[in-house]
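Journal club side-thread
Mid-discussion, someone asked how the predicted structure for our own chain would compare to the paper's figures. Pasting it here so we can look after the session.
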Amino acid sequence: HIYYMDLDTGKEKLLFNQEVEAREASFTPSRHLVAFSGFDPSSNHWQIFTYDLVFNNLNLLTMLQGDARFPVFTHDGKEIAYYVRDFTGNHYIQLTNWFGDFFKFLTKGRGKVSWSPDSWHLVFVMKGGASESIISLGQNGSDFKNLYTSKNALSGPAISSDGKEIAFSKQTASGWKIIVKKLSI
């Protein structure tokens, strides 16, 4: 289930009353639609769902033979990027619109993505041989750019709201550290 908290009262409330195991929610900017990773018993995999708070409508967007996770809406609320680990063990980033009538493979990559403020570029982690990189990519699959590479594991890139910096986690010998760098995409 997905809960939300009223920030004024601190009370939690069930977002919707459906029997869907759910995690990793992302709201549209208008806050009327939420995308999340939900477990679908018919496919036995995690799929991408949306729930419309106005019309009380739950929608299954994907039906993959693998797990779809970490859906993130663009800042304009029109598209959702998410991470897929397919049945062969491949990892990639895919894109759909908010109602799931088109799907686009973007590139190999893993984990949660972050969108630039103009909803044009996204950043994510890509593994290549013995290293991992933070990659920027245009929403149409163009403008591929390596922003940072490390022999250590990387995770969770996030673009600042002004689009000028990027923060991400890097595993070091003493534990995970957060790195902040200037961004030029």
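Post-session note: The first strand starts at residue 3 and ends at 5.
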